[in-house]
């Protein structure tokens, strides 16, 4: 993890890692969710998505298994029973992050945001 964070930290950035994990049953349920399918057109073939998930689980270690627990820059959350908002609250609290109030910043303080594809 340090190797990935190094270029950003060398430029003064704070880098934080959040690992989300959920049970296989929950992940199988989520791949068929309306919001997930709306955001990921490539995953609309539910039979293939289910097969990919099961195959990946069988072939790879997808979670750290607690390997990084205790690091100051790391948080692991089992989000099986949590809403996205509850997960966000845990991240904000754990890392003492500022809260977004929804108010816009003055133009001079604005930083352009880049959009990334998933």
Could you walk me through the main structural features you see in this protein, from its secondary elements to its overall organization?
There is one protein chain. This protein has 118 residues and is mainly alpha-helical. The longest helix is centred in the middle third of the chain and has 14 residues, at 46-59. The two termini are 21 Å apart. It has a two-stranded parallel ribbon with strand order 1-2. It is globular and about 45 Å long. Residues 107-118 have low confidence and may be disordered. The chain has 5 helices and 2 strands, in the order H-E-H-H-H-E-H. It has one domain (12-98).
Which characteristics define this entry?
118 residues; mainly alpha; two-stranded parallel ribbon
User: Helix coverage percent of residues?
Assistant: 25-40%
- 3D shape: globular
Oligomer: single chain
Content of β-strand? 5-15%
Spans of at least 5 consecutive residues with low confidence: 107-118
Number of strands: 2
Radius of gyration: 17 Å
| Average pLDDT taken over every residue | 87
Structural classification: mainly alpha
So how many helices? Answer: 5
Distance between the termini: 21 Å
Major sheet summary line: 2 strands, parallel
Number of domains: 1
Output the strand order for the largest sheet: 1-2
- SSE sequence, one letter per element: HEHHHEH
């Amino acid at each position: 993890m340090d190797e990935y964070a190094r270029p950003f930290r060398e430029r003064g950035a704070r880098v934080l890692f959040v690992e989300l994990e959920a049970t296989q049953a929950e992940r199988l349920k989520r791949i068929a969710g309306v919001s997930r399918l709306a955001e990921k057109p490539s995953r609309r073939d539910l039979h293939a998505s289910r097969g990919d998930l099961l195959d990946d689980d069988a072939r790879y270690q997808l979670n750290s298994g607690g390997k990084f627990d205790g690091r100051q820059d790391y948080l692991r959350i089992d989000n099986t029973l949590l809403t996205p908002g509850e997960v966000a609250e845990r991240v904000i609290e754990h890392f003492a992050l500022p809260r977004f109030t929804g108010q816009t910043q003055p133009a001079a303080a604005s930083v352009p945001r880049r959009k990334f594809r998933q």
